[in-house]
Specification:
This protein has nine helices and 35 strands. The chain is mostly beta strands and about 750 residues long. The protein folds into four domains: about 290 residues, no CATH class; about 80 residues, no CATH class; about 100 residues, Immunoglobulin-like (Sandwich); about 90 residues, Immunoglobulin-like. Strands 5, 6, 7, 8, 9, 11, 12, 15 and 20 form a nine-stranded antiparallel sheet that branches. A five-stranded antiparallel sheet has the order 4-3-10-19-18, covered by helices on one side. It starts with a helix and ends with a strand.
Length: about 750
Amino acid sequence: MRLVIARSAVRWPALAFALLLLGAALLAGASPALAVPPDQRGDPAMERMGLHDGGNIRTLFRNYGMVGDYPANPLNVDLSVFHSMEAPIRSGMNYSDGMTPFILSRVVQSDGSVAYIMETGFRERQGISPNTNRVMRFEPRPGYFQVDPAINLLLSPAMSTDPRTWPPYWPDRLDDPTDPGWAGRWNGYFGKRIGASQESYMVVDDQAYDAWPLFVPDQNDPSRRGLALRIAVRGLQWSDPIVGDVLFLHYDITNEGTTDYDDNLIFGVYLDPAIGGSSLSCDGIYESDDDAAYFENSSGHNLAYAWDQFGHGVDLSGVCGTTGYLGCSFLQTPGNPFDGLDNDVDGITDERQDGGPAELITGQEAIRAQVVAHYDMQRFEARYGPLENRPAYGAGSWWTGDEDLDWIAAHDDVGADGVPGTLDPGEGDQVPTSGEPEFERTDLHEADQLGLTGFKFNRIRAGIGNPNPTTDNIVFFTNSSNWPQRLWDQFTAPNPADRFDPALTGLWNLAFLTASGPFRLAAGQTTRFSLALAHAPDLPGLRSTVQFAQFLHETNYQTQPVAVEVENLDAQSSNGGIVLTWGLSADAVQELAGVHVERAAMEDGPFIRRTVSSLEPAAAMTFDDAPVEIGRSYWYRLGLVGMDGLETKVGPVRATASMPRMTDLDVKTVAAFPDPIQIRYRVARKGTPVDLRVYDVTGRLVRELEHSVRDAGEYTSTWNGEDQGGDRVARGVYLVHLVAGGTNITKRILVVGN
């Protein structure tokens, strides 16, 4: 149904006419047009409001860059319809009055004077244009959502879950020679493939910042204003409970001008907390006036967070609801690939996400020699594990532009759209292409990140009983308070400790800024800035949530358990055959297109498909496999087919035709060391041989936990997170494998802390 709606919204004449004009200009030898014509730049008329509700956080957002909103009547809010970082979803407990990314710059104008320009997408605290008398802020570019209200009934920005919001074609995909404009397809983080439960997409720019006539960012186009920056903004949510408390936000910033910014840009976030909303609570205080905030930039965290000092707020349950914590964690920050430093301490100096495939090294000995010569091996293997375990090393073929050695042609050579089988540019050419998995923009590790480098409070108003009346009331433009320069001076202070404000005491209505930089952005260059907006009941829970979000981001969201959660895959003899039984989680039932069963005579295959057509996903599933040889062992695995046609393998497990089901295995899906992991299992028959082992995803034995004979009953085994040699394992996915008699059970566990 969605595809039908999307295709009915496509206006082929507009797309064809655009392509016709482009072709005619090229054939006629016409002079190239402006890089971005004025009618395709940010336009206040394109402003729209949308709703993210794909996870456990529900929030309004604006397509000029702001997440969250401020109610029209802050003392009498209809919580059934107003959602500003509401968590949990449908609780009515709001956590913010809005959040925006910002870009702060120090530029030299044509007369030699210095200007400090601060650009944001916020609802207030903005300057007014001296030329248009309009607010200067990021504005959305046309062409990135469906403008026809007869089709886009909610007037929403583009959402992956509603094809009626998609434009007739995507302006930034017109250069695809095999599918110009991607008409009728989603234009997502994963290419055409919809990989999240919900994704939003919009493009903004800074054309509205026209108050600096002596600074021209693009010498080829004097009409271009601001810093000539384009920002592609994505929000992603997953419904799985493990990651439901996170809204992932990605900002791809492109310098469309001719000015090279040389360590004179800072990126960051401005967040205005309202923990518990804005109304009067049981504490006798308007909830915006008793908040606190702070930051952590140690133990791998780049986190700023806020909480209510009395722990109460106004929600749908009443005026004394329990509040939690709201956090904003940098997952990926702009790097500095020119300073000769290993800023992210991963053993690689000056990584880039726009460097191309670079040089091909073949043979494992040659790869090792190249890595040893150019990397800090101790740091590299501490971050990524042994070199022998890197995919490119195992394949014996490494393109050095894939700095962390995780792109291999056999798995990742799917072309620029990220979808196999479309024969788009780069597919099957044995060379990494931007847009393919594990390369450039889809590989976080190909950036030498700076992380959280500054934190600043904005004290808006002192709360009741606060003896300190001092306020900041930061604004994002230059007036008598000169805030853009003051913020620049703090965030670039020679002593890094001076870039962070000390903690506040007392009650406040406050906001805060987090910063990363300064860094470089050359003309034509694109860099990425990603963060997790997260909620948790308490601070330890928030740390755990953002740590898991960081892990997912670092694996490019490929460790998502939504579509591959299989429970109790098992087999038993029945009427001359083997009956396989397994369960699927509710999310897996919804996310999967089908399930296949494969069988092999040996653990390492080859596997032969036993299903003629895919099985329909269900909570409880069975498959009768016949004929089989009684007393013989077989290996089975499942092929889980996603909505995009991609298939994920689960298993294998061994089954013997004469053996009934004998055991059960229970282990937590996610664990964080140093806490030991309790693994519980049940044995159904006396005198059963038991082997309990932990493997990594490559099948390598990590730790043998038990090798014994058990009577019928329940048992618990403890894994302390160490391998056979007594070394602590790296974070990642591991397989707990139980063999009890003739029954094999395998469960996945994700280690997110170490």
